[in-house]
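hey can u check if this looks right to u? its 283 residues, i copy pasted from the old doc so theres a chance i mangled smth
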Amino acid sequence: MDDEMLKKLDERLAKGEISEDLYNEIISRYEREDKDIDDDVEKIEKTVEQATTEETEEEIPEKTKRVSISGSSKIDGCNCEEFRASGASKVNGDLRADDADVSGATKVDGNACFGTLDSSGSLKIMGKSEGKKLDLSGASKFEDDIIVENIESSGSLKVKGNVDCDSISVKGSIKISGKLKGDVSLKLSGNSKIERIEGGEVLVESGGSRFSIFGFGKSGKLDTESISGNNIYLENTKAKIVSGNEVVIGSGCKVETVKAKSLKVHESASVENKKNLKTIEKG
């Protein structure tokens, strides 16, 4: 299991925030081999639904200081300074919290607005997500846009919308149906796909020979329509267009067209068309 995620789970177990049974369940879930993340997320959703079906819903006042739930619980929306959830939890509506910390399996049926959102385990948010920081470890799925300052993800991140951030750092896999905007640092395991990337600094590296806990294999690959930025470094990337000032097309890349002021191409990479931006600007 990923060291960062394991450390967080150990800390939660020591503080009594999660039970030993839940701890062991999460460990075993992410140590399974040949694991498909989408199938797993669907199973987690069903687990949350089944676990909270017979639970009494909790009504949250207009604004509270702290909300803490554990085990199998669901609430009708939440507006608070601190939100803590462990086990199988569901928010029927919007989640609004200055500081949110969740572990286990968590689902938010509405929008999420937060200062920081820290998740270890499995997280699914149906609406838009807005805040300062997302710190994710495990399986995270967002059905709408994300607008945050900073994202750190260790595991699997899937977004059915656009991501607008100052910076994003991913270790694992990522799939974004729309545009990713911001400074980008990706160390990938398995197959990842992003429709478009627009960033200042763009770094895409393969995870190499390190085996992923999600069963994705020994190398990371990125498939994208286009990448634009200032300084760009790519490995194992398939793209139609790459455009930037300083561009390095590293090993394992396959690119149709590169537009750059300065370009380096690895001997194992394939670039069909090369266009010098200096020449284009003069023309």
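DSSP finds four helices and 14 strands in the chain.
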